[in-house]
């Protein structure tokens, strides 16, 4: 009860405020330090404006494209190869995070920096040493790292040899990688996430699962099979953490997209419920340690047959996570129709919600959906939650005097923080909040630089031109005050 009284005040003491990134969107230096080529190094920039579509996803790569990119790289632009040069500028960037008062910084480790092909017996020392330096720099300022082991990339060799997570072989290779990370950084990293947004694996089968979609006959079958392999790999790493580093806390993650029913019609309500089940299927397995019964019907209806080894169920039961983390950007609308396609686990919502405004990239803005999501997830798992991503991708203007007046971003984040605070007052345990792209970075979905999320502006365009100078946006000063007041001063 004391805890509840504490919660009623709003953000608890020690709440982890900060920002989030991923290796392949910030580091650059794609061929330095012994790093191998990774899947994200093959995301070629396709000018979205040329197609007239704002969200021109570069998520999926075919076998033909991969062959061409490997043979003729000079013909294409691969923005994730250059990132924002965090590899060389991490000290400057961390100093800026510290100036904002960050308590936590979410980053990921590039698998291909540690195991260049994924197949080596021994890790690449230069890659390990790079992250040591980053963690030491964070420690200088008292910033806790929150580390994602796999954020939308893997060594390209594993795609060529195994077609990524389609193969069970990946389980052992990932466990080896996870064990190396836990052993090496157990005294420096307390918070871990095994896989970023595992629920997006089917929508972005190459980015999420390293699968060349044209090589698989039945995408649903192979997609869910790949997810099963990731579940087992993740659970094995959780089990390894208990043994190697019992003090760390290790979580799972989904892109939380709440689906609302289009109308009060019971059939629409049922459709929304099913869409939400499909989205929560992932933490259902990882937090509860077993496949939920509703998936039996779903798999049967869709002719999906998950092949399991005899110990898999035991591994899942023993490898339950400590916390559930989410990214939160939008909500969807579900409607029961003959031709209703699955609205969960995708960035494209077929039906628009007339009550919500859209971002410049047509993503519905829905702070209340964050509160609803947190309430539902906490109710379901009774585990601490972490909002590991949330933010607004927008075009920013750098004025002549090097200022960025991003009041729209402040407005967006403020509303989401208020929603999160209300959820905390409703009784939900939230460990922390890391805004996505706290420093401008390469977009995951579109490989654009111009889709900016940061509090810190990075002078670089979509083509990779620019000084790479960092500038504080108006939101930088605002977020600094939010952190200093532990979420009390939101500048309303
Ligand atoms: C999340 C990913 O889905 O959304 C991030 O984990 C990504 O990697 C973020 O950058 C925003 O998406 P986008 O496509 O705007 O970069």
UniProtKB/TrEMBL annotation:
The keyword Hydrolase applies. Keywords: Glycosidase, Hydrolase. It comes from the Bacteria. This is 6-phospho-beta-glucosidase. One of its GO terms (molecular function) is beta-glucosidase activity. GO terms for biological process: carbohydrate catabolic process. One of its GO terms (cellular component) is cytosol. Belongs to the glycosyl hydrolase 1 family. InterPro entries: GH (IPR017853), GH_1_N_CS (IPR033132), Glyco_hydro_1 (IPR001360).
